[in-house]
Amino acid sequence: MTQQGHMQAENYTPKGKYIDLDGMQCYTTGPSTASSAIFIIYDVFGFSHQALQGADILAHADSSHQYRVFMPDFFLGKPIPPSMFPPDTDEKKKIM
After folding, report:
1. How deeply is 55 buried, as exposed, middle or buried, from its count of CB atoms within 10 A (0-12, 13-18, 19+)?
2. DSSP state of 11
3. Within 13 Å and on the Cβ side, how many CA atoms surround 57?
4. CA distances from 85 to 32, 79, 90, 96 (A)
5. Which residues on neighbouring strands pair with residue 69, listed in sequence order?
6. Is the distance from CB of 29 to CB of 59 less than 8 angstroms?
7. 17: nearest Cα among 60, 63, 65, 55
8. Which DSSP category does 81 fall into?
9. I want to staple 30 with a disulfide (CB 3.0 to 4.6 A). Which of 10, 68, 72, 78 is the partner?
10. pTM listed for this prediction
11. pLDDT digits (tens, 9 = 90+) for 26-80
């Protein structure tokens, strides 16, 4: 049996697509016929492979009630790079 929440990291192929949401790129996944939606606000690292996979899991985890998931790119394609964490130098602290 496959574990529902298992993350595949770098090799994951997203199931959704990117749309324009009032001038902002937005990842969306799940059936367009869904009667409920989930709006995802992620961490400072932006659209990571894990965040995209998490959105896909949320959209399809409950076969009797699927969701349309929306995850806007609040960082406009420029999230904080993982190399900036932890903020252990004055330069990193200034950026964070």
Report:
1. buried
2. G
3. 14
4. 37, 12, 12, 9
5. 29, 38
6. yes
7. 55
8. P
9. 68
10. 0.77
11. 999 999 999 999 999 988 888 888 889 999 999 988 888 889 999 999 888 888 8
